[in-house]
Amino acid sequence: MNYSNKTILITGSSDGIGKAVAIELAKDGYNLLLLARDKSRLIEVENLCEKNGASSVSTYSVDLTKINEIKTFVEEIKDKSVDGLINCAGIWHKKANLEDIPEDDIQHVINTNLTGLIQLTQKIIPFLRKSEQGFIINISSRSGHSAQEGQSVYSASKYGVRGFTEVLREDFKGTNVRIAGIYQGGTNTQMFNKAGEGFSEEKLSTFIPAEELAKVIAFLVSRPNGIWLPEVRVENH
User: Which domain, by its residues, includes 20?
Assistant: First the structure.
């Protein structure tokens, strides 16, 4: 099926889950708005999406921890339609007891994973209300559903995303905007090693492939108007 009349905004789309979701949705012909910090990597993903069949692709270099950049981005797209928002952007802190996590890491994780997600979503909601069938999908984590050792700050951010998602679902009941949360187990991306976790390729290979998780998300996006999956938990088999 071709969705060339639908436009989806994906955060964190220069790498990892966001990149995989962008490429998967491109295959169905969506118009894509790709947002991330690294412009050069965004251009690479833009080219891949175009090759895979996206109707159109636009890229935006935005740091979600900076509200002024979010506001500038929203002003830049004010004349565009947005039918769906998929919040994929997220970072990890190296596993440690709370007293051993650097202050800068605490701020960066909370500001990226939770505060930035909330602030961007707030600014995009007016676009979604204009869509015939709008949606917000927040990519949380298993860590937003169950406590795991050494992840105090990361889990705090992801539990926050879960609470935010559930309240949005209540707030948008009976409207044209549907809300969903994705709670996935460890996913094979570079997120961990970027934080200095140092996982081996062998260990990462036991995690959920980002490309397979993207298929689950694309399946959710393509649901007909009368059907929706408000919460999806994904684990490697």
Answer: 7-234
